[in-house]
Design a protein that fits this description.
four-stranded antiparallel sheet, 281 residues
């Protein structure tokens, strides 16, 4: 699933290529991609009507959610929210570019380009929301914003009884971190994923807070992590290079970069967790 660095990469591409453009035609064909509008042809038509005529005025991101801010001809402020989830991709294309399988939404812009939503597993979605973004009210602070306040982040971690990996992945606590970057953060912080937040020393919690920003910023600089499934690509359809920084994620049995002992994998909250038993305590 695309996490904060991947979504931030796409947001920056949208800022450069889509802001200032107007949607002259919206064509939704995938019902699950616009499921908040209901089901059937009427739902597809409702989404199209909501988006057509929108002039995109800016971009935003909260955790793993993308936001395209816009205004309609009647000066109504609105926002198009996009959640990529497991396999969603946004592609900036020419109308003549081949239409790939699983393209579920096409937005034709006034410069002749299209913004296409591709989603093989159909868990992702797009919908409009008032400018105040009430549908994102369940999210905690964005991980990069929280990392910029390490003292606050430290105390938040130490106040919870939840295991620290689950805590980092809880979008209601801190938005944007998933399975990949929680493993990488905890390895660099030398903390086991199954330690409880309340059991962390203040120095250990502070290391997590400091390293979170370092790991996420480094991944953004390399335009996100594209894994072997190739499900994440940027707006041009190109993979990110941040996987080359991974020290433990998906590296079971390979030597730890710090001590040389094999990386192990355990099941944790229904997900795989990768860590080093020697380096992480």
């Amino acid at each position: 699933m695309p996490e904060l660095p991947e979504v931030e990469t796409v947001r920056r591409d949208l800022e450069r290529l889509v802001v200032g453009r107007t949607v002259v035609q919206a064509r939704a064909t995938g019902r699950r991609s616009v499921r908040r509008y209901g089901d059937g042809p009427a739902a597809l038509a409702a989404f199209d009507a909501d988006v057509e005529g929108t002039r995109f005025t800016g971009t935003g991101r909260l955790g793993k959610y993308l936001v395209l801010h816009g205004t309609r001809a009647e000066d109504v402020l609105s926002a198009l929210i996009i959640h990529l989830r497991m396999s969603g991709q946004l592609i900036h294309a020419r109308p003549s570019d081949p239409l790939v399988v699983h393209t579920h939404v096409r937005l034709t812009l006034d410069d002749g380009h299209e913004l296409r939503f591709v989603d093989p597993r159909t868990f992702g979605e797009m919908w409009t929301n008032p400018a105040a973004l009430p549908d994102l009210g369940h999210l905690g602070p964005d991980a990069l914003e929280l990392a910029a306040e390490p003292r606050r982040f430290t105390e938040l971690l130490r106040s919870r009884r939840t295991m620290v990996k689950a805590l980092l992945m809880d979008q209601g606590v801190v938005a944007g971190i998933g399975n990949i970057y929680s493993d990488e953060i905890l390895h660099r912080a030398r903390v086991r994923p199954d330690r409880r937040g309340v059991d962390l020393s203040r120095p250990a919690a502070r290391r997590i807070a400091d390293i979170t920003g370092e790991v996420l910023h480094a991944a953004v600089d390399l335009r996100g992590s594209s894994l072997s499934d190739a499900q994440y690509v940027d707006l041009a359809g190109l993979p990110g290079r941040a996987a080359q920084l991974h020290l433990v994620y998906d590296r079971e049995h390979l030597p730890c970069a710090s001590c040389g002992r094999p990386v192990v994998r355990i099941r944790f909250g229904g997900r795989s967790s990768y860590f080093c038993r020697h380096c992480q305590r």
